[in-house]
Design a protein that fits this description.
Serine Threonine Protein Phosphatase 5, Tetratricopeptide repeat; mainly alpha; single chain; about 550 residues
Length: about 550
C-alpha cells in the first residue's frame, strides 16, 4: 500500500551527474541584461563564452554541442585546450583527440563502468592529479552509490576544499549531504558560497535546500531581481522553476504558471521533473509538451511520471529504472521503481530493484518492507509453502515499527500485519488488522487510507473471503469520485481486481498478466490526484524523499 499526503512536495534539489555529463550551463559565466544580447544559437553562445572563459567544463560541453550540431570544424582550438590541460579527464581527452582526428561521431557520455572500476580508476588518476576537484567529486559519487558514505564524505570535502566557490561543486556537495540527511551542512555549503546572491544556480539550490530543511527562503526578493537582470534562459531555468514551486505551494497558481513557462524555455531534467510534479499536484496541466519530453535525452523521472499519468505502468517502470541508474546516490528512484513493479506484480524485478536501493540506504524502512513484500508474494506466486518461519524477519520489523510515535507509521505497520495474517490463512485476523490500519489513517485524516482499502480488497479476493464481494462493491462506488480515488494507481489496479473477482481461482495468472486496457466500467474519469511521496512510508508502494 502507498502513503498519501495532502500535498506531494518535490524540492528542486540539484541532480548530481558525473562531471563528464554535466551540461556547461552549470559552468557558463553569467551575463546581465544590460549587456548586448547575443542573438545566436546555443552553440554560438557557448563558443563566445569559451573564448572569454576557458575552462574544462565549458570546453567539454562545447565539444558535445559541436558534434550534435555538426560544427566540429570550429572547435579544434577547444580540443587542443582540453589536450594541453593536465587536469582534463582522460575520457574528455579521448574525445578531443577524436575531434582533431576527424573521428568524432558521438557526444561525450558516461562510460557506464561499475562503481568499483570507477573508484579504482579515479584513485589512480588522483594520485597523479591530486588537485583535480571534479575527480574528487566523481569519486565521492562512486562511493555513495555502493553505500560507502564515509569514504564519499572524505572525497566530497576534499573536492569542496579545492574549489569551494565552484558553482557545480557547491551544488552537488550540498546534494550529497541532502542524500545522507545532513541538510544543515548542505545549506551551510550553499550559504557560504560568495556568489549566492548573484548566481541563480547557487541561489535556486539554496532556496530548495532551505525549503527541504523546513526553513522559509530568505532570498526571495534577490531571486526575483536575478530573474530580471540575468539574460540567459539557460541560467534561469532552475531559479524560475524554484520560484514557481514556491508560488504554487502558496496557492498562487497564476504566478506559478508564468514562472513554470519561463523555466521550460530551456529546461534541464530537474526542471522537467518539477513541472510534471506541478501537473499532478495542481490545476496546472499540460505544462510539458509530451513530444518535446520524448525527444529529451535522459529526463527519465519526468518521462516516468508522464507514463504514470496515462496508466502506462510498464513504460513508467522502464523510465523509473533508468532514473535509478542515472541517480545511484539516492534510494528515491528505487522506491518509485519498486512501487511500479508492485503495481505490475513483477516481484522478481521488485526484489532486484530493492536490493540495489538498499546498497545506498540499508536502513530505509520502505525498501526493506518492499523487499519482504516482494519475496513473500513471489513465494506465493510460485506455490511455495508459506510458514511462520518465512515471516519471522518481517514480523520482527513490523513489531519495531509499531512502536513509532508517528500514527501514520503505526497504521502502516497494522496494514502489513493484515497482509501477513492473510498469507498465513488467518483471514479474520487479517481483516481486523487492515480495519485497524484504515481507522487509524482516518483518525489522522491520512490519505493512505485509500490504498489500505485497495490492499485489503486484494487479499480478500485472493483468499475468497466471504466479505470480498461487499468490499469490492463498496470500493467500486468510490473509484472515480475524484481526489485520491482517481489516481492512476487506483484505476490501474482496480482493473486487475475486477478480473480476479470474476475468476478468483485464476488469480496468479490474472495478477501478473499485462494490463493494457482500462476497464470503462471501473474507471470513471482521467483526472489524477495528489499523490503523497513520503520518506516515512514503510509499505510496498510509493514514497518520495524530498529532492
Amino acid at each position: 500500500m502507498s502513503v498519501f499526503k495532502k500535498v506531494d512536495r518535490r524540492d528542486l534539489i540539484p541532480i548530481w551527474k558525473h562531471s563528464n555529463e554535466v551540461s556547461s550551463v552549470e559552468f557558463l559565466a553569467l551575463k546581465a541584461r544590460d549587456q548586448p544580447e547575443i542573438e545566436s544559437s546555443y552553440f554560438s553562445e557557448l563558443f563566445h563564452d569559451f573564448n572569454h572563459n576557458r575552462t574544462i567544463g565549458v570546453g567539454a560541453e562545447l565539444l558535445n554541442i559541436a558534434i550534435l550540431t555538426n560544427n566540429i570544424s570550429q572547435v579544434s582550438h577547444v580540443a587542443n585546450f582540453i589536450l594541453n590541460d593536465k587536469n582534463s579527464p582522460l575520457r574528455l581527452k579521448d574525445l578531443a583527440r577524436h575531434i582533431l582526428d576527424g573521428n568524432a561521431f558521438f557526444p561525450l557520455e558516461s562510460v557506464g563502468r561499475l562503481a568499483e572500476d570507477e573508484i579504482r580508476l579515479k584513485r589512480k588518476w588522483l594520485k597523479e592529479h591530486p588537485k583535480d576537484s571534479l575527480s574528487w567529486i566523481d569519486l565521492g559519487r562512486a562511493f555513495v552509490s555502493i553505500g560507502e558514505h564515509e569514504s564519499a564524505r572524505k572525497s566530497i570535502l576534499t573536492g569542496l576544499q579545492l574549489s569551494n566557490h565552484h558553482r557545480w561543486i557547491s551544488r552537488v556537495s550540498a546534494r550529497f549531504f541532502i542524500s545522507i540527511n545532513e541538510n544543515d551542512i548542505a545549506h551551510k555549503i550553499l550559504k557560504k558560497n560568495p556568489n549566492l546572491t548573484s548566481d541563480p544556480w547557487i541561489l535556486s539550490a539554496e532556496i530548495a535546500v532551505a525549503k527541504a530543511n523546513g526553513r522559509n527562503p530568505q532570498n526571495w526578493k534577490v531571486a526575483k531581481k536575478l530573474t530580471e537582470t540575468i539574460q540567459s534562459d539557460f541560467h534561469l531555468t532552475e531559479l524560475n522553476s524554484c520560484l514557481a514551486s514556491l508560488e504554487l505551494l502558496d496557492g498562487n497558481q497564476k504566478k506559478a504558471k508564468s514562472l513554470f513557462i519561463n523555466s521550460l524555455k530551456h529546461p534541464n531534467a530537474n526542471v522537467l521533473a518539477q513541472a510534471k510534479w506541478a501537473e499532478r499536484t495542481s490545476d496546472l496541466k499540460n505544462l510539458v509538451d509530451d513530444n518535446f519530453l520524448k525527444k529529451q535525452k535522459n529526463s527519465n523521472e519526468a518521462k516516468c511520471w508522464a507514463c504514470y499519468a496515462e496508466c502506462d505502468m510498464k513504460s513508467a517502470l522502464k523510465f523509473a529504472m533508468l532514473w535509478q541508474k542515472e541517480e545511484p546516490y539516492t534510494c528515491e528512484p528505487a522506491i518509485l521503481s519498486s512501487y511500479l513493479a508492485g503495481l505490475l506484480d513483477d516481484y522478481e524485478q521488485m526484489v532486484n530493484i530493492v536490493e540495489k536501493g538498499l546498497i545506498v540506504e540499508p536502513e530505509n524502512e520502505t525498501l526493506n518492507l518492499n523487499k519482504y513484500f516482494a519475496e513473500i508474494s513471489l513465494a506465493e506466486i510460485k506455490n511455495e509453502p508459506l510458514t511462520v518461519e518465512k515471516f519471522s524477519l518481517v514480523l520482527k520489523f513490523i513489531k519495531n515499527i509499531s512502536h513509532s510515535k508517528d500514527k501514520g507509521t503505526i497504521a502502516h505497520a497494522y496494514a502489513n500485519s493484515g497482509f501477513i495474517f492473510y498469507k498465513l490463512g488467518d483471514f479474520i485476523s487479517g481483516k481486523e488488522w487492515y480495519e485497524k490500519s484504515i481507522n487509524m489513517f482516518l483518525s489522522i485524516n491520512h490519505p493512505s487510507q485509500v490504498l489500505a482499502e485497495i490492499n485489503h480488497l486484494r487479499e480478500a479476493l485472493i483468499s475468497k473471503s466471504p466479505w470480498g464481494e461487499s468490499l469490492f462493491e463498496n470500493i467500486t462506488k468510490k473509484v472515480g469520485r475524484g481526489g485520491l480515488w482517481n489516481d492512476p494507481a487506483i484505476r490501474f489496479y482496480m482493473c486487475k481486481l475486477e478480473k480476479i473477482r470474476r475468476d478468483p481461482s485464476n488469480w496468479r495468472f490474472l495478477l501478473t498478466e499485462d494490463v493494457s486496457n482500462i476497464n470503462d466500467e471501473v474507471l470513471v474519469n482521467d483526472n489524477t490526484s495528489r499523490f503523497n511521496l513520503s520518506n516515512k512510508n514503510p509499505t510496498i508502494w510509493v514514497s518520495n524523499k524530498k529532492k
